[in-house]
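Design job #97: recover the sequence.
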């Protein structure tokens, strides 16, 4: 594929600085780019690499108005780069039908142009939408619904009655709909609480490798439209994650927690059960959330507190040894003063 720089600028809503007719044949990182390729600079600290890169053109922020390279100046370079990547690397789909080594229940319903690889299992009454791809080793239980254009990579397990929307991408090793962790004590014995709810996943959701999403005890565990979940995330029973939220690797979300829309949870965040996280909240990596978080805030730490307050505390930490020493010196001086005062009182 070849595209003139002018065409790419139109595609991403940018402005060309330089030769708008130069041809671009590919996309590459700034260090490894070659002549004919386009790259990008999203972080100002990499602007020094502009003079060294062999790329024919560079996507930069609109504040950069001149350089030795041809430029596309945009509001958000990273977003523009993603759009250019999509243009040069479109997903091509050629349906392959149902492999003879797959087992599809005669009671299941398959859409048009599906691809079902060897060793896939599709249970009774499940509905597989148009152009869905099920890679080897995928297990689909009974009464599952998978929306059109979804992709389930190798060894994904989808338990019965799960609902998956359109254009979902589910990576290898994901388990959806396993029992929530629900037990009640009878003396010393742990008695299992039946988990009879379901999991409902919206359109345009992506779920990273080896993530687990538990079915509800009653009702639904809900993953909203456009949610992006990284690898190795645990979502417990009856959790709700609002639309367009981002859940980074190794997050653990305890049962019945409600996460708002457009929330970002950094890596290894842990959230206690039955909490409410407001819309547009950001929680820093390795934070522990033990109480509700108000909307539109940034929080860090364990327990998680306002991010600015956390930074003030962090800046104070290196001073703690000196503060301890100063306090110890003050205590000694105060003890001496008190001893002198006590002695004078006795003399009187």
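Job complete. Output follows.
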């Amino acid at each position: 594929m070849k595209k003139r720089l002018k065409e790419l600028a139109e595609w991403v809503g940018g402005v060309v600085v330089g030769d708008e007719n130069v041809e671009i044949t590919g996309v590459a990182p700034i260090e490894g780019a070659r002549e004919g390729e386009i790259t990008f600079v999203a972080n100002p600290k990499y602007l020094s690499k502009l003079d060294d890169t062999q790329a024919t053109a560079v996507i930069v922020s609109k504040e950069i108005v001149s350089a030795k390279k041809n430029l596309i100046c945009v509001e958000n370079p990273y977003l523009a780069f993603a759009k250019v990547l999509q243009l040069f690397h479109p997903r091509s789909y050629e349906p392959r039908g149902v492999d003879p080594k797959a087992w599809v229940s005669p009671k299941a319903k398959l859409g048009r142009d599906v691809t079902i690889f060897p060793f896939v299992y599709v249970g009774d009454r499940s509905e597989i939408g148009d152009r869905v791809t099920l890679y080897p080793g995928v297990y689909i239980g009974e009464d599952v619904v998978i929306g059109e254009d979804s992709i389930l990579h190798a060894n994904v397990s989808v338990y019965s009655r799960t609902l998956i929307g359109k254009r979902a991408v589910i990576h290898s090793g994901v388990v959806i709909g396993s029992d929530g962790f629900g037990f009640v004590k009878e003396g010393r014995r742990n008695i299992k609480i039946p988990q009879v709810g379901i999991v409902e996943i919206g359109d345009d959701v992506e779920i990273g490798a080896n993530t687990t999403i538990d079915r509800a005890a009653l009702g639904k565990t809900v993953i909203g439209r456009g949610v992006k979940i990284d690898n190795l995330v645990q979502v417990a029973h009856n959790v709700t994650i609002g639309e367009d939220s981002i859940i980074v690797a190794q997050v653990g979300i305890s049962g019945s927690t409600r996460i708002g829309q457009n929330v970002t949870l950094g890596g290894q965040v842990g959230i206690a059960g039955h909490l409410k996280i407001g819309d547009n909240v950001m929680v820093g990596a390795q934070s522990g959330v033990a109480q509700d978080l108000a909307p539109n805030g940034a929080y860090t730490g364990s327990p998680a507190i306002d991010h600015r307050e956390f930074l003030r505390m962090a800046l104070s930490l290196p001073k703690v040894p000196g503060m301890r020493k100063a306090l110890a010196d003050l205590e000694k001086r105060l003890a001496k003063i008190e001893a002198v005062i006590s002695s004078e009182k006795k003399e009187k």
